[in-house]
């Protein structure tokens, strides 16, 4: 499975995995860092990238970029972690 397919599965609420990107259909993790979650108002992505102020790794930045394509909201990583947890 490709990373883009994992993000698509997440967007439709299905579990999937490819390497270090996994989803249970409700949350999306890059390695063990939660980078996105489903909420009553849609998909929320934490901006864990260098420009977003929450750089974690180059690979995680790529995963976040894929997730942004299906996001309804992108938020600062600190706020995302506070609202949705890190794990």
Task: Describe the protein.
By secondary structure, the protein is an alpha+beta fold. The protein has one domain. The chain has a six-stranded mixed β-sheet, sandwiched between helices. The mean pLDDT is 94.
Key traits:
single chain, 87 residues, six-stranded mixed sheet, 6 strands, globular
Could you give a short description of this structure?
This protein is α+β, with helices and mostly antiparallel strands and 87 residues long.
SSE blueprint:
Elements (H helix, E strand, L loop, with lengths): L2 H9 L4 E3 L2 E3 L3 E4 L2 E7 L2 E5 L11 H11 L4 E3 L1 H8 L3
Instruction: Report the sheet with the most strands, covering strand number, pairing sense and barrel closure.
Output: 6 strands, mixed
The number of E-state strands comes to 6
Task: Provide the succession of SSEs.
Answer: HEEEEEHEH
Mean pLDDT: 94
**What's the end-to-end separation, in Å?**
23 Å
């Amino acid at each position: 499975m490709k990373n883009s397919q994992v993000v698509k599965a997440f967007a439709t609420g299905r579990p999937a995995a490819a390497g270090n990107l996994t989803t249970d259909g409700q949350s999306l993790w890059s390695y063990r860092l939660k980078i996105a979650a489903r909420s009553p108002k849609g998909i929320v992505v934490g901006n864990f990238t260098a420009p977003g102020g929450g750089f974690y790794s180059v690979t995680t930045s790529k995963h976040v970029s894929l997730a942004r394509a299906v996001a309804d909201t992108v938020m600062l990583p600190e706020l995302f972690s506070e609202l949705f947890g890190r794990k």
